[in-house]
From TrEMBL:
Residues 4-244 form the ABC transporter domain. Keywords: ATP-binding, Cell membrane, Ion transport, Membrane, Nickel, Nickel transport, Nucleotide-binding, Translocase, Transport. It comes from Peribacillus butanolivorans. It is found in: Cell membrane. This is Nickel import system ATP-binding protein NikD. The complex is composed of two ATP-binding proteins (NikD and NikE), two transmembrane proteins (NikB and NikC) and a solute-binding protein (NikA). It comes from the Bacteria. It catalyses: Ni(2+)(out) + ATP + H2O = Ni(2+)(in) + ADP + phosphate + H(+).
Amino acid sequence: MPILEVENLSVSFKQYTGLKQKTHKVISSLNVTLEAGEILAVVGASGSGKSLLAHAILGILPRNASISGVIKYAGEELTPDRQTVLRGKEIALVPQSVNFLDPLMRVGSQVRTSVKNGNAVSVQREVFERYHLRQEVEKMYPFQLSGGMARRTLLSTAMVSGAKVIIADEPTPGLDPDVIKEALNNFREVADNGCAVMLITHDIESALNIADKIAVFYAGTTVEVAPVENFKGHGEEIRHPYSKALWRALPQNDFIPIPGSQPHPSSLPAGCLFAPRCVMATTECRQVQPEMRKLRGGMVRCIHAT
């Protein structure tokens, strides 16, 4: 049984323009599963719903958000009350924004509050040393840290939590290559010890080094979930046209840009969300959004995928 299941998740936001209220659906029919001991890398363009998925799982969406679908943890639905109990304990977040640090609390103390096993001070100092944070950093407040130091502090908090699920939302920007390598290796280590890791990232190349599966997001939905081994060569084993285009757009591959742009939540097409940019699109594609289906050991949302 997957430790985390997201089924047909939709997230909408109410916004006001003058006296008129509008509702924008930013996530629709999104599906992912995460198993213990696995690293699932979630990739996609900015605005594709990656961070919103993390916030929906943790129950930290803003008040103007409405949500439908089902999120399960260990086979049971994640209700708001259950999210509050598990958040920071069994499900830990490495957030994208350093503003998640408490501005009035020394960073060493913040990390120690997350330690579940062993001596909190010793564990905190050990993880700081691992991420190249000097001992004097533990007495600093967040405003005294550089951006890279703050990210390493957030990373430390999740790593000492003993959580069964770690959701890392862009954990490596602003870090030097050695620290990035160390952090990614640590994610692999905790996964090998039974933890489930969801790595949200733009860095597909780094994700390929440690992930087991890749989930590709587009315009607020999942278009493909595939074993990491499929991402090689010219993308012959990749299923969805967008996933292939994303892969071939990388500098180390063909560096071919994708024409057009991802649609805004206020102007989503009626059928397949990628159809306006897809060379394979037919009339049927423009009428109904395809369902996710199993194909060659993965999942894909495309009627043309073979």
